[in-house]
Amino acid sequence: MINFLKIFGKRIKKNANYKRYKNKPKNAVFMSATSNKVLVLNADYRAYTVCSLYKAFILVYLQKAEVITAQAGRAIRTVDKSYVAPSIIRLNKYVNLPYKGVMLSRQNIFKRDNYTCVYCGSREDLTLDHVIPRSRGGTSSWTNLVTACRRCNAKKGDFTPEEANMKMAYAPYKPSFIMFLRECAGNIDESWHPYLHFH
């Protein structure tokens, strides 16, 4: 979701630790860690994004972030060293996010709908469907776009779901930033809950 190399840019590439890290065998470093998702907090402890264990390790190794919570009983091992496998990290410097919205895109609609057709529940041959067809003034928006399999999309055609007698599993909605982090992360560590507003 976040391109950390773009954020930190040349500072990472010039870092001496980065030059040593680049030459390490990646499969050896990560073979002992099972969870590949890490919650990234901004410097103010607010949820910032979810990244891979690989990216999280780079940030911690280059001292751009600190480990807040480690994966219980897991480690990242090299030939001669062992590091904790992070579950939550915090950036050492605050990164400004001028807009904390979720970008409307094909992949983000799929993620919101859990890669499932809202009409029949299929997870195969997916595409996007305009609830109110574009030919009838429907817009390309969070509340008018849903995930649909091609079969249901063709069956619905230029009708509304009601006219086609096709019931949707739920009405489309615009996810909040925190909600989107929760949904795209899937099964998550309980230690993430306080930062993602679980109750």
Brief write-up:
The protein has eight helices and six strands. With 199 residues, it is of the alpha+beta class. The strands form two sheets. It has a four-stranded mixed beta sheet with strand order 2-1-4-3, with helices on both faces.
Average pLDDT across residues? Answer: 83
Order of helices and strands: HHHHEEHEEHEEHH
Based on CA atoms alone, the radius of gyration comes out at 21 Å
Biggest beta-sheet profile = 4 strands, mixed
Proportion of residues in extended strands: 15-25%
Helical percent range?
Answer: 25-40%
Structural class: alpha+beta
| Uncertain regions spanning at least 5 consecutive residues | 23-34
Helical stretch tally = 8
Number of separate domains: 2
Care to describe what's here?
The chain is an alpha+beta fold and 199 residues long. The protein folds into 2 domains: 4-97 and 187-192, no CATH class; 106-156, DNA Binding (I), subunit A (Orthogonal Bundle), CATH 1.10.30. 27% of the residues lie in helices and 22% in strands. It is built from 8 helices and 6 strands. The protein has helices spanning 4-8, 10-14, 16-22, 26-30, 53-61, 106-112, 150-156, 177-185; strands spanning 37-41, 47-52, 65-77, 82-91, 126-130, 145-149. The strands form 2 sheets. Strands 2-1-4-3 form a 4-stranded mixed beta sheet, with helices on both faces. A hairpin with a 4-residue loop joins strand 3 (65-77) and strand 4. It is elongated.
Topology:
Blueprint: H1 4-8, H2 10-14, H3 16-22, H4 26-30, E1 37-41, E2 47-52, H5 53-61, E3 65-77, E4 82-91, H6 106-112, E5 126-130, E6 145-149, H7 150-156, H8 177-185
Parallel strand pairs: 1-4
Antiparallel strand pairs: 1-2, 3-4, 5-6
